[in-house]
Amino acid sequence: MKLFSSVNDVADVKSIVAEALQLKKNPYAFQHLGKNKTLALIFLNPSLRTRMSTQKAGLNLGMNVMVLNIDKEGWALELRDGVIMNGTTVEHIREAAAVMGQYADIIGVRSFPGLKDRDEDYNETVFNKFVEYCGVPIVSLESATRHPLQSLADLVTIEELKTRPRPKVVLTWAPHIKPLPQAVPNSFAEWMCKADVDFTITHPKGYELSTDFTKGATVTHNQDEALAGADFIYVKNWSAYEPYGTIFPGNENWMLTNERLKITNNAKIMHCLPVRRDLELSAEILDGESSIVVHEAGNRVWAAQAVLKRMLEEIG
Ligand code: SN0
Fold this sequence. Notes:
- Strand 8, helix 9 and strand 9 form a beta-alpha-beta unit.
- The protein is globular and about 55 Å long.
- The protein is an alpha/beta fold.
- It has a 5-stranded parallel sheet, sandwiched between helices.
- The chain has 2 domains: 162 residues, Rossmann fold, CATH 3.40.50; 147 residues, Aspartate/ornithine carbamoyltransferase (Rossmann fold, 3-Layer(aba) Sandwich).
- The termini are close together.
- It has 13 helices and 12 strands.
- Helix content is 36%, strand content 15%.
C-alpha cells in the first residue's frame, strides 16, 4: 500500500481489521520493519488522537517519528498554482512537500476542508498536492472528505465488541453550534457499506451526505426508527453538503439521552471525539455504561499500526 486515503485503498477490509486486532495482542512483534525508517506527521489543523495514536503506532513498529504542526510552526504555505507570492504566503507546497519527502519514508497529512468551495474540498485539492509532490507513501490523517484511520479504528472496535454476527450500526447526526466537515460521516459510511453490518444513517432533512459515500446504506429522517434495535450508535455532527457547509437552525432534540436509548439493543455509543458535552452528546451517556468512546480512541493505535505495517512491508 502506497496510499491510504480511503477504504478503496485497502484490498481486503476484513483482513486489515484482523491484522489490527492481532497487533493489539502483540504490539512490538514487527519492530524490525520500522528500524531506520522515518514517519513524518504533518498537521495543517489541530489534533489529539490522530497525532498521538499515529505517533505511537510508528514507535511500536520501531520507526522514528517527527511531527510538524505546519499551521503554527511552519512557513505560511501557498497552495495555489500560478500565483505571484507577494502576499502573506512564504513557501509553496511544491517545494515544501518535496522537501518533506527527502526526510521521511512515510508521510501523514491532516488537511481539513475549507467548507466554502465544495469542488475544491471534494477534489481533495490540498491532500492530493502532498501526494503529487512528496514522492513517498502517504497516509491521510483526515482530509477534506474522509478520515480513514478513524473509520478503520471504528470498524475494529465494532468487530471487537459485537455480540452478534451482523450487528445493526446506526450513524446519527447530532447538534452542534458551528459547521463541521462531512469527512468523518462520509468515511464511516463508506467503510460500513463495505463491512458485514446492517447499516442505517439518520439525520434531519437537509443533511443528506453525498451518495458517493452512502451506497448500500438505509437512510431515514426518523431517528427513533433508526435507533430501534441498534447495537452500535455512531454519533456525529456534520454540516450540509447542499448548500455546502450550511447549518440549519433547530434540531437540538437530536441529542441522545439515556431515555432515547431504551429502544436500542443495549447499544454501545461511539464518537470520534472531540465531543461537546450536552450539545452533541449528553454527559449522562458519556459518563455511563453504554459509552465506548475512550476504548474506540484507544483502538486508533492498532488501526494506524496496521496501515503503517503494510506500507513498511512494501517499502522493504
Ligand atoms: C473535526 C471534524 O471533522 O468534525 C475533527 C474530528 C476528528 N472536529 C472538529 O473540528 C470539532 C470542532 C469543534 O469546535 O467542536
